[in-house]
Amino acid sequence: MAYIIYALIILISLFTIIRTYKERIKLKTALKYEQKHIRDVEELNQTKLRFFTNISHEFRTPITLIMGQTEVLLQAPNIPPAIYNKVLQIYKSSNQLKDLIAELLDFKKQEEGLMSIKVSKHDLVDFLHENYSYFLEYAYLRQINLNFVREISTIDVWFDSKQMQKVINNLLSNAFKHTHEEGTITITVGKTDDYAIIEVKDSGTGISNSELSKIFDRFYQTNQLNSINMGIGTGIGLALTKGIIELH
């Protein structure tokens, strides 16, 4: 009887050891796979960044030349309104592409830890209202209601206006991207005891919970079929926005 008990103890011990060993092997394999996946994603992101950066440098000169020529045409006397509007659209599209190129180059600086900010004192409410006014014509053309709500008349804040301009442009561009005609976008500015608060809210398609945690990831773009202009952009706008805010 004692031998049977000893044999059972040995068998149970062996079973426990084997099961523990298999679990360790399984865990080790899963860890290796996860590490490889992280390396692959990082390598892919770096490849994308190098590609976009190289393309950006190549595009900068011809786009500057295109904008220069269109500026000359826009200042030409007696230009027919129909032609003027077409040239103006070329200029606006070129300027948009120029902004995307600048965004890519800024993001490269941010990734390398070379981006810096130059802060000075500004009235955040006036700054945001000025940026709001820039988008009014575009909102009118898109038949979208663009509203500005100030919860306080003045908020003095130290920030880099050039970099903060990119933050607001990115937030509003994303709002317009996901808002249909007759929709609403509202910019609200206020403050707490310790923070200034900027809120950009739209009545658009929204973002699913599964994608919400990824929106600040590099090169991530939502896959929602009902978003406006789906697939347009570089996928770095919100990542750059987050980096600029963190620098402040």
Explain what this protein looks like in three dimensions.
The chain contains 7 helices and 5 strands. It is mainly alpha-helical. It has 2 domains: 1-115, Helix Hairpins (Orthogonal Bundle), CATH 1.10.287; 120-247, Heat Shock Protein 90 (2-Layer Sandwich), CATH 3.30.565. A 3-stranded mixed beta sheet has the order 2-4-5. A two-stranded antiparallel sheet has the order 1-3. Strand 4 and strand 5 form a beta hairpin. The protein is elongated and about 110 Å long. The protein starts with a helix and ends with a helix. 18% of the residues are buried.
Name some characteristics of this structure:
2 domains, single chain, elongated, 3-stranded mixed sheet, Helix Hairpins, Heat Shock Protein 90, two-stranded antiparallel sheet, 248 residues, mainly alpha
